[in-house]
Amino acid sequence: MAICKSCSAPLPANTNFCQYCGVRNDVDLQDKQEYTVETQQSDRTCPVCHIPLQGIDLKVNGHFHIEHCTSCFGLFFAPGEIEALLDKAVAEVSSINWQLLEHINQERYPLDHKVKYLKCPECQVLMNRENFGYRSGVVVNLCSKHGIWLGSGEMTHLLEWKKAGGELLEQQKQQEQQGWETLPLNSSHNFRLHDSYPQLESDAEPDLLKSVLGLLFKTVE
Length: 221
What we know:
Oligomer: single chain
Helix content: 25-40%
Order of helices and strands: EEEEHHEEEHHH
């Protein structure tokens, strides 16, 4: 659990303000990530506070450059940088901790969260809102050209998601999806048709059986 930089009181998950002294804290970088300031003011603007972002270098295996708001503590990543940071900051896991994964999402998801579309810090075009990874519990603001905006606390959420096996779960789901998309018609897989469709009688005519199966799987390449 993060602690307040002013009074050392514990900070609830996904919370910036200390309930005891009222100080706003940077829960993503403070005591979690060593970094140095590169530029006090970049050409990009915070989509929440509308002030210039600050360029920082995360000390993760050398140099890792992102941008940071000094007021709301949001983070802006170029395309592919969040995945790279997760790879560098969190060791690979070999199993999925389902209980921890569920607990992380329940604890960190703000109940009073209001959906708001934000403008890209660079091009000022409204960004899309998309889920980051399967069951991550984090909805990011995405500009397909320039990058991804994370609110304060969401990077910590993603780091914990990966530690709990969330990225491994995402990879498994992608492999399953790719397998279904490439499955041939004459595959020997057991589709368990009776779970979703009326069961065919064992003495059905071969031509009829072939026609029905062709209709059921006509969208499969």
